Amino acid sequence: MNDFHFYTPTDYIFGKGAEMQVGALASKQGARGVMIVYGGGSAVRSGLLGRVIQSLDEAGIAHCQMGGVQPNPVDKKVYEGIAICRQAKADMLLAVGGGSVIDTAKAIAVGVPYEGDFWDFYIDKVKAEKALKVGVVLTIPAAGSEGSGNSVITKVETCQKLGLRAAPGVLNPVFSILNPELTFTLPPFQTASGIADMMVHIMERYFTNTPSVEVSDRLCEGVLMAIINEAYKVKQNPRDYEARANIMWCGTIAHNGTCGVGREEDWASHFMEHEVSALYDVTHGAGLSVIVPAWMAFVARRNPGKVAQFARRVFNVPQAEDQVAVAMEGVERLREFFHDMGLPVNFRELGVPRPDIDRLVEGLHHNKGELVGFYVRLSAKDTREIYESAL
Ligand code: NZQ
Ligand code: ZN
């Protein structure tokens, strides 16, 4: 196991009606003015935004707001938000939504106290050391941004979708409110995409060459198995509170660091997918259900050990002498699971029958360097082969 620094400063409040505590929680954080950020309207239609405002009013906290954040959030909304936040002199961001809303709120939080262009943080020109506080009311378990110190934004002009990984504690939400009932209204495709995303957050950590990581291996495998079980229940009954609750908490622990301590992480699949959603505006989790099996099949032939272990322990593939065959059976079962959830497993099913692979490969290595990933180091020739195998 590698040495590590693990710090998760987020206060998690989980359960029915938890959003009514938002005013008290913001007050406890010393907030005087809160800027609410939300998406394309689901939080308005469900009445959630109204309840959040009521709670802030009851706590005597001033608030301003910005709606209209779209999935695969873009820089334009961040600039707009920075201006609103500065004008209202808000000292805390409150994201009411999913990863896109939370990541926009984080970008505003880091952009407001900075004199330069917030994009500097995303291209690693400047290190993010100071930010306004961010609180979250989560409405979709998926990106895990409610427990991470990261934010992913697309710069439209250059078509770059890049992540900011701030130092521990800088951008982690100070509190995250998780009420599983808020996820009852999710369309099945969003639920499934979120499930794929959280699974891949675990897998990016799981596929490692770091030896002696038995505890985190078992944690990863256990959470993956739980997600798969609960996913079928949610598919059958979207209003199954217990299944929704389990999925919601899985989404958080998949990405708040718990499953990745002490091990080298991979992240090639995420970087490959970010190129796809930057160019074609597809749902991130659905992009992953296409890329990840293709990536796994590629690495299984070069470094089968962990993929075979995944196949045996997560999907009960019988042990056999041929580790590549065991690994490939695991890949097949993962594809079947994604299909069962109604997710695409190739570009055609994703609705992008003829992706511009030259552009994907070029963008990927321009943004992420000559080699990507760690479980198997991938050159441009390798990533091209993976994209092509997903057609
Ligand atoms: O905009 P509204 O109307 O709210 O609709 C949203 C949106 O259309 C809808 N939705 C959310 N909660 C709902 C709901 N509809 C009905 N009922 C509800 N309760 O779902 C759609 C997707 O929302 P979005 O916020 O985009 O989803 P998600 O949480 O999957 O976030 C995806 C973004 O996060 C990034 C992705 O790349 C993508 O841009 N990621 C962020 C990470 C991080 N910050 O740590 C890590 C991830 O790997 C990921 O890259
Ligand atoms: Zn993701």
Main traits of this protein?
391 residues, alpha/beta, six-stranded parallel beta sheet, two-stranded antiparallel ribbon, 49% helix, globular, binds 5,6-dihydroxy-NADP, binds zinc ion
What's the quick description here?
This protein has 391 residues and is of the alpha/beta class. The protein has helices spanning 22-28, 42-45, 48-58, 75-88, 99-111, 119-122, 188-206, 214-236, 241-253, 268-280, 284-300, 305-315, 323-340, 347-350, 357-368, 380-389; strands at 11-14, 33-38, 62-66, 92-97, 133-138, 150-155, 160-165, 175-178. The model has no long low-confidence stretch (mean pLDDT 98).
Q: Look at the helices and sheets and give the structural class.
A: alpha/beta
Q: The biggest beta sheet, please?
A: 6 strands, parallel
Overall residue-averaged pLDDT value: 98
**From the structure provided, what is the oligomeric state, counting identical versus distinct chains?**
single chain
Number of H/I helices: 16
Shape: globular
Low-pLDDT residue intervals, each spanning 5 or more residues: none
The spatial strand order of the largest sheet comes to 1-8-5-4-2-3
Distance between the termini: 37 Å
Total beta-strand segments: 8
Beta fraction of the residues? 5-15%
List the bound ligands. 5,6-dihydroxy-NADP, zinc ion
Question: What gyration radius follows from the Cα positions, in whole Å?
Answer: 20 Å
Helices and strands, in N-to-C order? Answer: EHEHHEHEHHEEEEHHHHHHHHHH
**Share of residues in helices:** 40-55%
